[in-house]
Amino acid sequence: MSEMLIRGGKKLRGEVQVSGSKNAVLPILAASLLTNERILIKRVPDLEDVRTMLEILSSLNIETTFENGQIEIKAHSTCKNSVPYHLIRKMRASFNILGPLSVIHNEAGVPLPGGCSIGPRPVDLHLMGLNKLGFENRIEHGVVFTQRKEKPRSVTVDLPFPSVGATEQILSAAVKLTGTTTVINNAAKEPEIGQLIDFLTQMGARIRGKDTSTLMIEGVEELHGIEFEVIPDRMEAGTYMLAGLITNSAITVNGYISEHNQALTQELLKINAPIQINDDRVTTKERQETLKGTYIRADIYPYFPTDMQPQMTTLLTLSEGRSIVNDRVFPERNSHAEELRRLGAHAYARNQNIIIKGQKELQGAPVFATDLRCAAALILAGLAAKGETVVQEVDHIFRGYDRIVEKLRGLNADVALR
Ligand code: UD1
């Protein structure tokens, strides 16, 4: 594991380009299994998670290339129907291949995804959905085995809450169940789900209800190879915007889709953050007034994203007055609070809230990243803190931030990996 050395307290300047969305491209790569034809995916971020998904495709005997931000999935005649644990363990999103594999082979075996430091993340809804689609499943020695037992003509899946992964899993199986019409009620509506729907629709799937909580899918016999471009990553865009704000700098983030980031924009305007959005770019300015504390509730889309909660917590440690951060999606996502205290912040996790008392400055110190967004929060804190911050176990960041050292240096940040 490497660490990032940050000499903080410097102003940033210049522009940064947002890369393609991690959470969009991962389910797209899983769904690409649904055709044997060639697929070309553009604006792909170079991330550990993307590389893991490519390793999974390779373990299934599917050949891919990844060059200049483009992944080509070669045409192939067949693929295997099971994946080894060491690949699935690396990230939860890899479990998304279960649906497509089950549909193309009528049976499949995929290990349960590993644990997660932001709290328990079961897959019961994924399995319930596949079961409704006609696939019996059993778990043996940590592996989920599916077997197609029925071919129902009409299926209704009522999700108890709009799980992103379960919606994607069910969608990516239902599209290729010929003769079956599926309705998903209480489906997730994240922009990344919209991307998956666009991807599948261009391949020939029949899906109605995009951007709503009810999806209707008519299974088709064949899906086809396509070329497809991934949307910019809303979490990466938001993180760089916060980097500008937390260092009180004027920077421009290119690839900020305001429609995808409305909750974040609204919260920032509420705390007096000086931002200006023009088309698909956001500019931060030096502030005329202090940032104010606030109450943030992270919840399912379109509410404030849990994946921006730790970074926002960092900003609020430097905002005047008291703030409360409440994460309804991952209530245990709070390890960053303890690490922020090493930098002198007043941030305490209590009863599923993070309580923050804002102050004027942070001081550099060694800190420890426990997961991807915690790493992002600590890097932001390090950019603002006076003196040297060393973010240990920083490698988590490479799961979700494309070329981050290069991009931060391009913004005049003093950062180095060691
Ligand atoms: C996705 C995102 C992740 C984001 C999360 C919430 C990807 C690759 N990851 O994760 O970055 O933080 O959405 O916006 O897109 N749950 C169950 N049973 C299930 C499935 C989920 O209880 O079968 C629970 C989870 O434990 C969690 C909550 O539902 O508490 C949200 O999970 P879900 O919406 O499925 O998120 P992910 O798809 O895992």
What does this molecule look like?
By secondary structure, this protein is an alpha+beta fold. The chain has 2 domains: 4-18 and 232-417, UDP-n-acetylglucosamine1-carboxyvinyl-transferase, Chain, CATH 3.65.10; 22-229, Enolpyruvate transferase domain (UDP-n-acetylglucosamine1-carboxyvinyl-transferase, Chain, Alpha-beta prism), CATH 3.65.10.10. It is built from 13 helices and 23 strands. The strands form 6 sheets. It has a 4-stranded mixed beta sheet with strand order 21-22-1-23. It has a 4-stranded mixed beta sheet with strand order 2-14-16-15. The protein has a 4-stranded mixed beta sheet with strand order 4-5-3-13, covered by helices on one side. Strand 21 (366-368), helix 12 (372-384) and strand 22 (387-392) form a beta-alpha-beta unit. Helix 6 runs parallel beside helix 7 (191-203). The longest helix has 13 residues, at 191-203. The radius of gyration is 22 Å and the shape is elongated. The mean pLDDT is 96. Uridine-diphosphate-N-acetylglucosamine is lined by residues 23, 26, 92-93, 120-126, 163-166, 192, 306-307, 329-330.
Write the layout of secondary structure elements.
Elements: E1 4-8, E2 13-17, H1 22-31, E3 39-42, H2 48-59, E4 64-67, E5 70-73, H3 85-88, H4 98-105, E6 107-111, H5 124-132, E7 135-140, E8 143-148, E9 154-158, H6 164-174, E10 181-185, H7 191-203, E11 206-208, E12 214-218, E13 227-229, H8 234-246, E14 250-254, H9 262-270, E15 275-278, E16 281-284, E17 295-298, H10 309-316, E18 322-327, H11 335-342, E19 346-350, E20 353-357, E21 366-368, H12 372-384, E22 387-392, H13 404-410, E23 414-417
Parallel strand pairs: 2-14, 3-13, 9-10, 17-18, 21-22
Antiparallel strand pairs: 1-22, 1-23, 3-5, 4-5, 6-8, 7-8, 10-12, 11-12, 14-16, 15-16, 18-20, 19-20
Helix pairs in contact: 1-2, 1-7, 4-6, 5-6, 6-7, 8-10, 8-12, 10-12, 11-12
Uridine-diphosphate-N-acetylglucosamine (UD1) binds next to α1, α5 and α6.
